[in-house]
Design goal:
The complex is a heterodimer of chains A (465) and B (712). Chain A is built from 17 helices and eleven strands. Chain A has helices spanning 16-21, 88-95, 107-114, 139-152, 157-176, 181-189, 198-201, 208-213, 216-226, 242-253, 304-315, 321-329, 361-377, 382-399, 403-417, 426-431, 435-445; strands at 47-50, 56-61, 67-74, 118-123, 128-135, 232-238, 276-281, 289-296, 333-342, 347-355, 451-457. In chain A, helix 11 (304-315) crosses helix 17 (435-445) and helix 13 (361-377) packs across helix 17. In chain B, strand 24 (666-676) and strand 25 form a beta hairpin. In chain B, helix 2 (97-105) crosses helix 8 (219-229), helix 10 packs across helix 16 (437-447) and helix 11 packs antiparallel against helix 12. The N and C termini of chain B lie far apart (77 Å). The chains are: A alpha+beta (465), B alpha+beta (712).
């Protein structure tokens, strides 16, 4: 029995994050968990500098294993998209593998695999990341692959049309054909007002009509603006020689010209603007589901740590409040959980329950609301907070055992928490949360006036043979 | 496009001074002449050494081996206990027992319930895992290193004081049966099960759990297996992470000190049968739109020194997207999304397999090509460049698999359990690099026994049989459970039915539609006699209304003597979308158009085809069922045309029993008829007495039922 994934802040396109968070069966808390030790997790040491063209470079050495990660964050996400031009950031996640001046289509993946490495990329509302983990004697390959596509990505009509089709297929399989995906995405975008925060009022995967009406010139312009060194952070972690790394970075990236600074993302969010409700039918769902969505602050807010701990207590793992009450005790839900998603400009907390067969949706909704009310009205016992803190710390420590994990931790700290050093204080900030903080943030955010309720219903059966 | 020409740098005008100033300020950038920007991937530099953390092995007084690996990068620890309890120790009629025992190890001890155990581990930010494989059962706890005493305590508790509560056994059984049901529907899993049986015969490595074997497991079986096999002698405890070896030894002795015993002597497993020739086993999966191919043979044990050259050979044949199988079957021919090879490493004899999932139409070509590639590695020495690339890859990827404490614990445990030398992990790369071309050739020649292969093809039997036979190897046909089939079984001939025409009676029926037991809508059926152009016909008029989801009406006209279809008219809305179907038959020629819901959404259909004599229309199903001469053991194969999908399927109706069925319209003695061959199996209850109509029907896998509420 493994504990389910902890509260996640950054997620890939689609409903992967909720699927990972929902767990099965549960545990009743018995006995106080051990208090966290005085020393939090090990520190990450790093060095950083900037090239004249604006590229930020972060180096973090670790010679334990001969492995190195090259990790690039472009500070562009779906939040930077304009009305009627949604889906571009995510489209680029695909376009970036279609070849560049010196790399053939699909060759990027082949080169990495053949070198014994692994790679991936993802898009969210606030950033797009690309990374390779390689044997450390292939550092030059990783750096060169990222440089070549930053300087000369092949944006052609053919590549654009191919990847547009691929994105549509991805949407068809991952959203249209997956139970609860559609409702899930709607519930995350609806809390945001389209005119005040278009950034989060539309989905990362975007509107297919927007992509259909886009031209390759628009795509090129997006690339020129956002895929520029002054909008990127290159992080190298693992078993490398810093002098050699700096030399390679200069050789490969030094002459890529910068772009004009991008317009900042605008996102005005007011909390507690009123209770909202939506109901929808999902062709692929078998059972009804109830979602409660609350607006929240960005990741850099002082209340972020407390909010994450509260979200974890409510929704993470077999011994979470929601799982214990709705799944085990009341047997009203087949699964119950949720996640906290604090982004750069604003955040959300979402709680989900999938009805058990034959259970009324109104009952499931009532139970969810009762558990939310409890954390607002009553103090959470210290033992539950300690558990959430222990799980957070364990997650941080596990992540940082790999070069990739360290790279992501540094990138995340810089872009979402405001500084590289925040990576070394993240655990402390969670350990400093008190039960009084939990109650305070519950009362600030988990109120009916700040809540959107979404009900997803399965369809009735289709006609017989 | 914003790209400078390769090799030249064009700083923007006006920024040269700024750039120079910045460079001077930073001072860290090299001042030597800049190298050119490469236009091809830069070559690898020298491999950097692997420094595997040191580890200490001791044997405790109770016979357990303890291995401690110190790695102090992060304050984590993984504790893994492995015992000699696996599939190889299961009784032949209780396959799945070792997995069941492993599952139950974390579900309750004398001092902890399942919930308490998981709460305790989760509360410390940790995770616990228990599982079994062919040879061993492993229990593992990963946590922050400060919780090492808890991790040891939990594992010691489960292996010495597990209670196997009956309720948890039933829950585990239900979970395993559900998982097995899913597995049995997946062609890749079907292929794997039958492949292992073909390769290993009666040897335990060739067995797989079945619903029957899982149902047969009793609590006594679980307790007996646990008592006999989960013992410290021969067990291995690996502790890896931010720990101190001496302290671990002390804590482990305290935690496990009272644990004593030796596993019962295990009977020698049956010998693996020797195969004498290459054979194709065609696994017929009705409705398959693609084929799953698995080709292979028994290979080596993990202790055989040939493992190094064979690892390189496997990489060349199918170990990635640059390997031969992928490059040829996918990149060159476009037959598959991916084709790979792999060999297993249980304690005993492993097996090699090459695999691919391909379209039905190219299955024979793909099989032929796979055989060609496997033959090639056996008889042809690979190019130096291919061998070098494979070696580089294997040496390079290895450190990525030993980054975390958990990975390190796993690597050390596996090496020791498989009986490999203590320096296996440390010298792995070195031994791979030392393999010579001659050694590679010799090993491939000896172990790639391509003249005695089992080739599994799971797919559409009728479409594949003759083409596979043409490949020149004997072909044997089985069903998805591995039971033998004949060629005739692949093409069930339509049964000549003596229709009981007097059972088709004019009637008006009303049904209610239940979803998850809740009434959601209504359907009606009216059957009337009529005459058209001098011909006696039956008119079947139906309607369905389910809230705002489905509103549909249809009329089907069939010949009153032969029940052959004449006309279908269907229209309505499904989920707010217009759907319709119009078919006209002239003898066996059918023409028409439609837009109907299917498994992948709305489907447009244009129909203009000639059907075989005796083909029926599936819209007349219920009337046809009434007219079957139902009796205690009837079974009929009926070819049915589905206009919406444009396919002919052979549906098989069989009488599975007699039941008294109660529905709102009353209580009726019925035949229970199972209808197979469509997307989902249907169960229909047909009245034994007039008017011989369907009283109720249900669909497998969907919470939908139709029940008769009224008849006139």
């Amino acid at each position: 029995m493994t504990s389910s994934v902890q509260t996640r802040r950054r997620a890939v396109v689609g409903s992967a994050r909720w699927a990972a968070v929902l767990g099965v069966s549960c545990a009743l808390l018995a006995g106080a968990p051990p208090a966290p030790a005085q020393q939090p997790a090990g520190r990450i040491t790093y060095d950083s500098y900037a090239l004249p063209n604006g590229l930020t470079v972060v180096l973090s050495e670790d010679h334990t294993v001969p492995v190195v990660t090259v990790n690039v964050w472009y500070h562009v996400g779906s939040g930077n998209e304009r009305v009627r031009r949604s889906g571009f950031a995510h489209l680029f996640e695909h376009m970036m593998f279609q070849g560049s001046a010196n790399i053939r289509k699909s060759e990027h993946m082949q080169l990495v695999e053949r070198a014994g490495g692994s790679m991936n990329g993802s898009t969210n509302e606030d950033r797009t990341n690309y990374y390779e983990t390689l044997p450390s004697n292939r550092l030059n390959l990783g750096l060169w692959l990222e440089a070549d596509r930053m300087r000369s990505l092949a944006i052609t009509q053919e590549n654009f049309e191919n990847q547009r089709s691929t994105v549509k297929e991805e949407r068809r399989l991952g959203v249209d054909n997956q139970p609860y995906s559609r409702g899930f995405l709607d519930a995350q975008t609806m809390p945001f007002d389209s005119s005040a925060c278009f950034a989060y009022a539309h989905t990362v995967i975007g509107d297919m009509a927007d992509l259909d009406s886009a031209r390759v010139e628009d795509v090129q312009a997006f690339f020129n603006q956002y895929y520029a060194p002054n909008n990127a952070v290159l992080t190298i972690v693992g078993d490398f020689d810093p002098a050699e790394a700096r030399s390679l970075v200069q050789q490969y990236y030094g002459d890529i010209p910068r772009a004009a600074d991008a317009a900042p993302v605008r996102c005005d969010v007011s909390l507690g603007t009123g209770t909202r409700r939506m109901e929808m039918t999902d062709n692929n769902a078998n059972l009804p589901a109830v979602l409660l969505v609350y607006k929240a602050t960005p990741a850099s807010d002082a209340d972020a740590a407390a909010l994450e701990m509260l979200g974890s207590i409510l929704a993470d793992g077999e011994s979470s409040r929601l799982n214990r009450r709705l799944v085990r005790e009341e047997r009203a839900a087949m699964q119950a959980g949720g996640f906290t998603d604090l982004r750069r400009s604003a955040g959300l907390l979402m709680f989900i329950a999938i009805n058990n067969q034959g259970v009324e949706t109104s009952r499931v909704e009532r139970l969810l609301n009762e558990e939310i009310d409890r954390v607002r009205n009553d103090s959470v016992p210290q033992a539950e907070l300690t558990k959430a803190q222990n799980q957070y710390r364990a997650g941080v420590v596990r992540q940082r055992q790999t070069a990739m994990g360290v790279a992501e931790a540094l990138q995340n700290a810089l872009w979402f928490d405001g500084s590289l050093d925040a990576a070394n204080t993240a655990a402390q900030r969670r350990l400093a949360v008190t039960t009084a903080d939990l109650r305070r943030v519950a009362q600030r955010f988990l109120t009916p006036e700040n809540r959107l309720t979404a009900i997803i219903n399965p369809p009735a059966p289709q006609g017989g043979n | 496009m914003r790209q400078p020409k390769a090799g030249s740098r064009k700083p923007r005008a006006g920024s040269i001074a700024t750039a120079t100033a910045l460079v001077a300020a930073l001072g860290a950038l090299p001042t030597a002449a800049q190298a050119q920007y490469p236009t091809r991937p830069p070559a690898p530099t020298a491999l950097r050494p692997v420094r595997f953390p040191p580890f200490v092995t001791t044997r405790l007084a109770n016979g357990m081996d303890l291995v401690v690996v110190e790695q102090h990068k992060q304050p984590v620890v993984t504790v893994t206990l492995a015992v000699q309890a696996g599939a190889i120790h299961e009784p032949a009629d209780k396959v799945g027992l070792s997995g069941m025992v492993a599952e139950l190890l974390t579900k309750g001890t004398e001092s902890r319930t399942a919930d308490q155990l998981s709460a305790e581990v989760e509360g410390a930010g940790g995770s616990v895992f228990a599982g079994s494989d062919n040879d061993f059962t492993r229990v593992s706890v990963s946590s922050l290193s400060e919780h090492l005493p808890l991790a040891l305590s939990v594992i010691a508790d489960v292996v010495t004081h597990s209670t196997f509560p009956a309720a948890e056994l039933e829950l585990a059984r239900t979970r395993m049966l559900s998982a097995l049901r899913v597995e049995l529907s997946q062609p890749a899993s079907i292929a794997d099960r039958i492949f292992r049986r073909e390769v290993y015969g009666a040897h335990p490595y060739g067995r797989s759990a079945t619903p029957a074997s899982l149902q047969a497991i009793t609590r006594e079986d679980v307790v007996s297996f646990f008592t006999q096999r989960v013992k410290p002698t021969g067990a291995l405890l690996v502790v890896a992470g931010d720990v101190n070896a001496a302290r671990v030894r002390q804590l482990a002795t305290e935690a496990f000190g009272a644990w004593r015993g030796t596993p019962a002597a295990a009977a020698s497993p049956p010998a693996i049968p020797a195969r004498s020739l290459t054979e194709i086993i065609l696994v017929h999966k009705p409705g398959a739109v693609q084929s799953n191919i698995l080709a292979g043979f028994t290979f080596i044990t993990p202790r055989d020194p040939a493992v190094y050259p064979l690892t390189i050979a496997n990489k060349i044949v199918g170990g990635g997207t640059d390997a031969r199988l992928f490059m040829i079957l996918r990149e060159q021919h476009g037959w598959t999304y991916g084709s790979y090879s792999y060999f297993s490493r249980p304690y005993g004899m492993g097996a090699f397999e090459a695999n691919a999932e391909v379209r039905t139409a190219v299955t024979d070509s793909a099989v032929a090509e796979m055989l060609r590639q496997l033959g090639r590695i056996r008889t042809e020495v690979p190019a130096d460049s291919e061998i070098a690339a494979a070696k580089n890859y294997l040496a390079g990827v290895f450190p990525l698999t030993i980054q975390t404490a958990q990975q390190i614990a796993g690597a050390v445990a596996n090496a020791r359990l498989l009986g490999l030398p203590d320096d296996y992990v440390l010298r792995y790369r070195e031994r791979l690099a030392a393999v010579t071309t001659a050694q590679l050739a010799a090993a491939a020649q000896r172990f790639f026994t391509t003249d005695k292969m089992a080739i599994l093809v799971v797919g559409d039997g009728p479409a594949l049989l003759s083409k596979l036979r043409a490949l020149g190897h004997p072909v044997r046909i089985v069903d998805v459970e591995g039971q033998p089939l004949t060629e005739a079984d692949l093409n069930p001939r339509p049964t000549a039915v003596s229709w009981a025409l007097d059972r088709i009676v004019p009637v008006f029926l009303t049904y209610r539609v239940l979803v998850q037991g809740n009434p959601m809508g209504e359907a009606t059926r009216r059957l009337a006699r009529a005459t058209e152009g001098g011909r006696a016909v039956f008119q079947l008029m139906g309607s369905m209304n389910i809230g705002s989801f489905v509103q549909q009406a249809d009329t089907v006209t069939i010949d009153a003597q032969t029940l052959a279809p004449i006309r279908v008219r269907q229209s309505g809305t499904v989920q707010g979308q217009q759907a319709f179907l119009r078919l006209d038959y002239e003898g066996t020629h059918v023409r028409g158009q439609g837009r109907t819901p299917g498994p992948q959404g709305m489907r447009e259909a244009n129909v203009d085809t000639t059907l075989a004599e005796g083909t029926l229309d599936d819209n007349a199903m219920e009337a046809l069922l009434s007219a079957l001469p139902l009796a205690a053991s009837g079974r009929w194969s009926l070819p049915m045309f589905s206009g919406g999908q444009g396919t002919v399927r052979t549906m098989t109706a069989s009488v599975a029993g007699e039941e008294s069925v109660t529905v709102p319209a009353g209580m009726f003695a019925c035949w229970r008829v199972e209808l197979a061959g469509g997307e989902q199996p249907l169960t229909l209850y047909v009245m034994k007495d007039a008017p011989y109509v369907v009283v109720k029907y249900t669909m497998a896998g969907a919470p939908v039922a139709f029940e008769l509420t009224n008849r006139q």
